[in-house]
Every structure is written in C-alpha cells, then in structure tokens.
Amino acid sequence: MKNIPRLILASASPRRAELLRDAGFVFAILPADVDESQLPGETPEAMTLRLALAKARAVASAAAASGAAAFILGADTAVVAGSALLGKPASQIEAARMLRTLSGCTHTVLTGLAVIRLPDRAERTAVESTSVTFARLSDEEIEAYASSGEPGDKAGGYAIQGRAARYVTRIEGCYSNVVGLPISRVYALLRELGWSESAT
Fold it and tell me: Is the dihedral of CA 21, 26, 30, 36 positive or negative?
C-alpha cells in the first residue's frame, strides 16, 4: 500500500466533517483545544484567521511526532452583524436576541482557514466571506426557532442547512462557508501545498 498523505481536520464540528466527507475527502479528526476569545481591538477577520492557525498549529505539533506526511486543516467561523460579533448562543434567550439582530438585515459569515503541510510545516491561510440576508422575522418565528434546539452550537445562532433556510432570502458568496467550511477555498489551499486527487 502506498503512503498517501492524510488530511487531518483540527475540529470537532460535525458540520465541517460532513462537508468534507460529502466533497469526497478522506480524513482523520483531531480536535484542537484553543481559547476562542476575541482579543481587544481585534477585527473579526483577524480573529478567525488567528484561531484557525492556532488550531492547525496545535494539531500539527501533535501529529509531527509520527514523521508522516499529512495536511492539517484548521478553521474558525464568525458571524458579524453590523458591529456585533455573534458567537454561539449560551441560552435560548441569547439565541432569540441574535435572531432579532439578524431579522430583516444582511450579515457576514467569515471563516478563517489554515492548512499546514507536514513534515515541512509549510502554511497557507485565507479568510472566506459570505453575505447572508434574512427576511424580517415575527416574534412568533423567533421564539419558535430559538426554542427548537437548533441554534445551540452554531455561530450566529442559526443553521442555514436546517430550519433557518426558510428565513434566508439571499446569499452572496460560498454557501458551504455559511454551513461552516468553504470547501472550494479549502481545496485551493490544499492544491497550493501539493495536494493531489490521489491523496483523497
């Protein structure tokens, strides 16, 4: 059996794993444990890129011990509405508050990406941006969605691939980025580092 470089996803996100799997990638999962707090004065773009790199580098350090060839993928997603950075809601009340912020407005979904090639630790990074417009939501719609359980572990408090699809009126940019991972940009970064179809 030939030695095929592995792809390692530095994330426990089931949505990122599903997107990669659906795109035909074979990969291992090795989540990275990093502090995801925003630094004072840090822009959302800079934050997602910093966190993606931190995740990829943490996993690269752990995987490098084997000496095997591998590609490490780190990612971090943020939702920005106006000047507000919307993370994962900690409660149903917070989810409802986020939905009121998104209602009738266009917001931005940012995903920072970092790919590290082992064993030489060459790096490629990017930030993908997608604009998403929500219809104006009634109080009843907001409360129903907030109480559905779906917003809980999603940046911005919604899942475009789930029930929230009914509220999205327009998308400008990469759809899979809104789900959690811009697959076409990931593929481009991998190719820059020498990934080939034989590696999948």
Answer: negative
DSSP assignment letter at 119: T
Q: What is the DSSP letter of 38?
A: P
- Structurally, the chain folds into a number of domains equal to 1
* Statement: residue 1 has pLDDT above 50: no
Full-model pTM: 0.90
Residues 6+ apart with CB under 8 A from 5: 68, 69, 70, 71, 195, 199
Catalytic residue set: 76
* Residue 51 maps to a domain: yes
Which residue in the block uniquely carries the two structure tokens 């409360």? 143
53-104 pLDDT, tens digit each = 999 999 999 888 887 899 999 999 999 999 899 988 999 999 999 999 999 9
Domain span holding position 12 = 6-199
Q: How far is CA 185 from the centre of its chain?
A: 12
Per DSSP, the three-state class of 42 is coil
